[in-house]
Design goal:
By secondary structure, the protein is α+β, with helices and mostly antiparallel strands. It is elongated. It is built from 3 helices and 12 strands. 15% of the residues lie in helices and 41% in strands.
Length: 182
Amino acid sequence: MRRPKRNFSRVSLAIILSFFVSLLGLSGATTAAAADTPALSFTVDKAEATPGSTVNLTMTFTNTGTADVRFVWQSFQPTWETSTASGLKYSWTTCSADPGVNCTPGAGAQYSVPIAPGASRKVTMTYTIGADSSCGYPDIAFYSYIYYEFAGGQPAKDGTFFSPATRVVCPTTPPTPAGAQA
């Protein structure tokens, strides 16, 4: 006995279903944007600074997951180049943070939990470059390791994140024009 001829093959049906899923945004492509967002980001207010200047370093922790963050552990330290540079001097002066965050200048932050999906917590630490600091390379830069766990048994995440560097530049004295008296 011969089967009746179908207008749609299984392949055609799969293609049509895939098209509708992508139109409705159910294919998971929308979660790719969240995966591209780093959990911890840094900014500095100065890419270059002179000895005696202050620099503000801001860290922003964002819950990029789909469940509440229930635990966060963070370390914060200078990069190897910064910590081993002879003559590079700086000192931490202040730390301010969003509500729900405790911070210590130069030591990172302790976050109150839960942190809802998409919510962020910001910390700004200020340091002063020593008046007698060396100039040029290496730059002043930091990094942070962060480990965080989600509610509902979702897998924990972690990562190491680096701050932008600040180059210490020595002020230059403009040359005295020829014939001018000093």
